[in-house]
């Protein structure tokens, strides 16, 4: 089943003879992490504005959840409640004078009750780490903070689909990582997340499926490596191969390791390239609900080799870890770093949101699948 | 008394012209210098370069005010009632009292720490009014006896006791108006003002425009600041003619930026289900009976106070011993 599908979609801007989208036939799979890739001016933003009905096709059809889009006032209001957009520049999206008012904007437009809005403002501000900024005027925030507010406003409506335009542009690496973690969490929670970007490294590491646009034409749909193997298509699209893909290709050629698998992350690459029978440590996973039990932590750390690295993964865990002032080695990208520690022969402990359990296990299995088996033990449940 | 007329006529004219020019230019320059020094001391960009920081400062003041939760319409009504009371009485004590009230409100609003931005605004208003009221004081009725009489250039100076008192009354009325309006402005964020306008049944098109102008003025000023710095970095302000050209270029750039911003904002508003009206989550307190009665009572009291104190203060006596 596809969440979005377009059939013979054409679009041109008002008073322009140039077609900004030409015969787009795209299928965005439900439950997949999707990236729209393309150089500047390729038509990514124009396409995603068709997904929430802001732009109407010149010709062709857009289907949402299997049904053709209708452009009546009521139908569009319903569609935009389901499909949320986070723009690249937060200033284009933030209209209200205070953080609280701006996050409430979309929900008030939907006619939600105030008590529910109040609770959701708290929830999303906590997710983006801006709880103490609730009453602040928006123009007094830094760019990164404004971006977080825009993100909070987009997810507060609990959309079925979240479209993010260049979500990490202008953010520091830690905030970028945090944004992707939230996107992962939303994805696990059942929200379809679509990222529109020209950051090939981000798309390669994050997305299950990519769609590449070039001058308003869809030139590729599928898994990332299928596109990057065609260097001419990559160059014509105005892109470059992701660093991970290029390093893997070169190392595969030099070392002669060709298991036909394409690592998308550092841990996957190291697992693929590691010498067989490498001694690994053990990864201890501790799912976290809403509190941390110090006795359990001490028990796990005692069990693990002395000096085990500790990482966190997930918004709730991060919040609790900060509150409890836990000893942490990897605050950001904790999962990836803990996997690498284990591959280096050290033990590691990863605290993660229980809701992310499947994703954590999936990552361990995936990395192990590249060659080096990662011993993983889940300890209790906090 | 000043025997200005004893001077030769040409000297009188040159002297008065010089005084007027120096007073006007000096007031403006002094205000600018104070402003720039204050900004430099705080590490802020110079005030003549865009002025974004002043806007943000006023905005911060309004949001941080102890009076922010008061009914915006009530505050506006109170300020207007006191200004009107000051205008309809002829006693100088009434505008002095309303000015004091305005300052007291400002002090309460800012937690007894009136910031330099407000002090400077009041100072600027005073400097400007000194020039205006100076003119009123020297344009007295020729039929009345003069405190100071002279003819300079084409201008006849005739300061009378009445014109001198009138000048002081106008001065205090103006400064009282400024302090009261500043007390209102520094405690009322623009969205609250828009809400007050809604409560006054203003057309929603106007209130929506007020909110949008408020929000986008910050963004446009930010963009202008960037353009200005960029032009400055490329020697765009070297020389008068080049400065004019660069300023014109920035103005055109701002215009196209505003158009582009408008297009993008429309798409973003549509994306967030905008229905043609900016909803408010935390609505400020509405105007109630207390907010109607209190300003009216205060204004009536001020008018009565003015009625009984009219003529009590004679500035001619204070400054010239009643000559």
Note down, in words, how this protein is organized.
- The complex is a heterodimer of chains A (382) and B (323).
- Chain A has 382 residues and is of the alpha/beta class.
- Chain A has 15 helices and 15 strands.
- In chain A, the strands form three sheets. Chain A has a six-stranded mixed sheet with strand order 7-8-9-4-10-11, sandwiched between helices. In chain A, strands 1, 2, 3, 5 and 6 form a five-stranded antiparallel sheet that branches.
- In chain A, β8, α6 (173-188) and β9 (192-197) form a beta-alpha-beta unit.
- The radius of gyration of chain A is 22 Å and the shape is globular.
- Chain B is mainly alpha-helical.
- Chain B is 70% helix and 4% strand.
- Chain B has eleven helices and two strands.
- In chain B, strands 1-2 form a two-stranded antiparallel sheet.
- Chain B is flat and about 70 Å long.
- Mean pLDDT of chain B is 80; it is low at 45-52.
- Chain A binds chain B through residues 49, 52-54, 76-77, 80-81, 84-85, 87, 89, 91-98, 100-101, 104-106, 108-110, 114, 117, 135-140, 153, and chain B through 56, 59-60, 63, 189-191, 211-212, 214-215, 218-219, 261, 264-265, 267-275, 278-282.
């Amino acid at each position: 089943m596809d969440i979005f599908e377009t059939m013979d979609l054409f679009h041109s801007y008002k008073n322009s003879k140039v077609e900004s989208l030409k015969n787009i036939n795209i299928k965005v799979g439900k439950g997949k992490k999707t990236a729209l890739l393309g150089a500047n001016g390729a038509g990514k933003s124009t396409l995603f504005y068709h997904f929430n009905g802001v732009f109407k096709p010149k010709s062709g059809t857009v289907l949402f959840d299997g049904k053709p889009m209708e452009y009546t006032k009521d139908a569009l209001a319903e569609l935009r409640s389901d499909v949320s957009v986070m723009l690249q520049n937060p200033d284009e999206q933030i209209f209200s004078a205070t953080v609280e008012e701006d996050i409430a904007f979309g929900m008030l437009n939907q006619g939600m009750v105030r008590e529910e809005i109040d609770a959701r403002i708290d929830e999303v501000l906590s997710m983006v780490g801006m709880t103490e900024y609730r009453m602040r005027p928006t123009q007094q925030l830094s760019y990164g903070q404004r971006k977080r507010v825009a993100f909070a406003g987009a997810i507060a409506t609990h959309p079925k689909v979240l479209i993010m335009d260049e979500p990490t542009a202008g953010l520091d690496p830690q905030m970028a990582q945090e944004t992707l973690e939230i996107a992962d969490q939303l994805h696990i929670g059942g929200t379809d997340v679509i990222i529109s970007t020209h950051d090939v490294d981000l798309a390669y590491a994050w997305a299950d499926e990519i769609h590449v646009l070039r001058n308003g034409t869809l030139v590729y749909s599928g898994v990332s490596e299928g596109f990057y193997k065609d260097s001419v298509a990559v160059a014509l699209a105005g892109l470059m191969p992701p660093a991970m893909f290029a390093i893997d290709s070169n190392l595969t050629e030099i070392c002669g390791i060709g298991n036909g698998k394409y690592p998308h992350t550092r841990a996957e690459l190291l697992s693929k390239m590691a010498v067989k029978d490498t001694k690994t440590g053990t990864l201890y996973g501790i799912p976290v609900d809403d509190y941390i039990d110090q006795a359990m932590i001490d028990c796990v750390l005692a069990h693990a080799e002395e000096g085990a690295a500790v990482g966190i993964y997930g918004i709730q865990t991060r919040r609790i870890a900060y509150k409890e002032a836990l000893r942490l080695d990897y605050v950001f990208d904790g999962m990836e770093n803990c996997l690498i520690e284990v591959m280096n022969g050290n033990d590691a402990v990863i605290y993660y949101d229980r809701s992310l359990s499947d994703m954590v296990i999936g990552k361990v299995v995936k990395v192990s699948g590249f060659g080096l088996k990662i011993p993983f033990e889940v300890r209790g449940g906090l | 008394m000043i025997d200005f007329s004893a001077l030769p006529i040409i000297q009188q004219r040159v002297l008065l012209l010089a005084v007027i020019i120096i007073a006007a230019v000096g007031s403006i320059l002094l205000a600018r210098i104070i402003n720039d020094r204050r900004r430099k001391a705080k590490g802020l960009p110079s005030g003549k370069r865009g002025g974004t920081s002043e806007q943000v400062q006023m905005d911060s003041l309004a949001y941080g005010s102890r009076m922010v939760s008061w009914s915006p319409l009530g505050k506006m009504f109170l300020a207007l009632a006191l200004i009107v009371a000051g205008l309809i009485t002829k006693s100088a004590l009434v505008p002095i009292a309303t000015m004091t009230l305005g300052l007291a409100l400002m002090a309460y609003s800012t937690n007894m720490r009136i910031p330099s931005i407000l002090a400077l605004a009041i100072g600027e208003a005073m400097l400007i009014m000194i020039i205006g009221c100076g003119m009123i004081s020297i344009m007295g009725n020729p039929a009345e006896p003069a405190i100071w009489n002279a003819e300079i250039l084409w201008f006849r100076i005739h300061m009378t006791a009445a014109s001198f008192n009138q000048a002081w009354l106008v001065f205090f009325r103006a400064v009282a108006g400024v302090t009261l309006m500043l007390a209102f402005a520094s405690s009322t964020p623009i969205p609250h003002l828009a809400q007050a306008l809604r409560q006054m049944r203003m057309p929603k098109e106007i209130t929506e425009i007020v909110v949008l102008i408020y929000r986008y003025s910050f963004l446009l000023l930010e963009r202008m600041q960037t353009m200005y710095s960029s032009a400055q970095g490329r020697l765009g302000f070297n020389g008068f003619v080049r400065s004019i050209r660069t300023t014109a270029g920035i103005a055109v750039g701002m215009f196209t930026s505003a158009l582009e911003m408008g297009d993008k904002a429309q798409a973003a508003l549509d994306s967030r289900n905008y229905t043609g009206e900016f909803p408010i989550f935390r609505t400020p307190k509405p105007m109630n009976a207390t907010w109607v009665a209190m300003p009216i009572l205060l204004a009536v009291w001020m008018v009565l106070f003015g009625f009984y104190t009219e003529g009590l203060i004679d500035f001619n006596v204070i400054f010239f011993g009643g000559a």
